[in-house]
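Input sequence (204 aa), recorded before submission:
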Amino acid sequence: MNAPQHLYVMRSGTGLIKIGRSSSPLARLRTLQLVSGMQIELVAVLPDRGSEERAVHAALARYRLNGEWFSPRGNFRSDLAKIIGVELFQIRPIEDHRRLISERALKRSTHLTRILSDKRRRLTQQLVDDIMPSSRAQKLSDGGGLFLFVSPTGFKSWRFRYLDAHRREQCLTLGSSPEMPLAEARTECEGARMSARELIKGAL
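Predicted structure, token format:
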């Protein structure tokens, strides 16, 4: 039996709003905090309303920045309040919602912390979609020289870093995200890696 999905609202330290769904919003929050390195808070949890996520996103399309992230400009707050039927930021304290998070979910959050702290772990498509821009450029490694570059403006691109025959570092841009998904980026990286090896052999 699938765990119930809850609709959640999060807010970044810069004021951007994330609207998504999860069976464990607290575990989701911890993942985002670890991946982005930014201050993010859980503003609201709407129990068992995860199925409404797509409709909410469609209704707020004019405020959308990227993926599940929205800009709170103009009438965003009032529009969101009308759609979800509750006044944003006037919802009871998030501590009251902790009863929605089972002991298993909390253990999963600890497990996620351990996974994301292990630099040997590879990226997932979900993490790629969720990463937010910050004031400085970010580089998220997937291993083997492949990494996701996130500019301060929010542009994401896949890049392959390698050493040439003279041991000088080179960087090749493979494509942009989300146009190029993670699986395709890995395939492109493997091809670029093989080409780089051939060039190095030819130069020796």
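Checked by second reader. Residues 182-203 form the longest helix (22 residues).
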